[in-house]
Amino acid sequence: MRHCCQFKADEIYYLEETSLYVNRKLSIGFCPICEKPVAELVEISFTGAVQRLRESGIKANELMLSVMNQISYSMRECNYKKFKSKPYGWKYGVNKSVKINGKEYFRQYAKDFYGNKELIKVS
Ligand SMILES: [Zn+2]
Predict the structure, then answer these.
(1) pLDDT digit string, tens, across residues 28-37
(2) Ligand 1 centroid vs 9 CA: distance in angstroms?
(3) Average pLDDT over residues 41-56
(4) How far, in Å, is the centroid of ligand 1 from the Cα of 105?
(5) Higher-scoring residue by pLDDT: 82, 43
(6) 13 CA to middle of ligand 1, Å?
């Protein structure tokens, strides 16, 4: 992957094919120089052209979220069993508000892209 320099992806997700694109791959990692998350989507169109979309920071997260429903499997999926209950890999935060007796409480969860979640904060 590339951002400020060339670096190795932390994880590679293989995505389902669409009617327009095949060999779809999403690589994610953290730039070792600026420490921003970087996501790179590479796909090959039915005409054979390679399309590359690279985003960093918050936009990398958005790119990841936009394709998360299309993930078929990941490079590390075979290791997944070791981590069954806790989120691992690329995590994203989800805030949920709960009303109890008219008072509003917030619960913040960390979620991964395998359906695992962990409560990290209650306020
Ligand atoms: Zn960078």
Answers:
(1) 999 999 999 9
(2) 13
(3) 94
(4) 37
(5) 43
(6) 21
pLDDT of residue 85: 57
**44 Cα–ligand 1 center, Å:** 25
Residues with CB under 5 A from ligand 1 (ion): 3-4, 31, 33-34
CA of 87 to the centre of ligand 1 (A): 25
111 close to 95: Cβ distance less than 8 angstroms: no
Question: Alpha-carbon distance 15 to 24, whole Å?
Answer: 5
> Mean pLDDT over residues 66-85, rounded?
73
Around Cβ 3, how many Cβ atoms within 10 Å? 20
